[in-house]
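Dear support,

I submitted the protein below through the web form. The confirmation email said the job was done, but the results page showed an empty box. After a refresh the structure appeared. I'm attaching both so you can tell me whether what I see now is the final result or a partial one.
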Amino acid sequence: MNNPKTFVCISNYFKGVDFLINLKKLGNKVFLVTSEKLRDKSWPVEYIDEIFLWKGTIQTELGTFIARGWKFNEKS
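What the results page shows now:
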């Protein structure tokens, strides 16, 4: 991929495995934010750069909280 992107995927359910795999295969950076109760599910960890576990229910604001210090798709 000529212009890789960074994806922060937020999931309250065990779903989107094919999506995560394909994002990574396209050369993107992939982060998963999910509930701690889903820790032991069969996430495709070899295609995910980092997994963040959230206690309780994941809120929409979580993406903003995590992304505060990150600079996405910054050219080196």
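Response: this is the final, complete result; the empty box was a page-load delay. The chain is about 20% helix and 25% strand.
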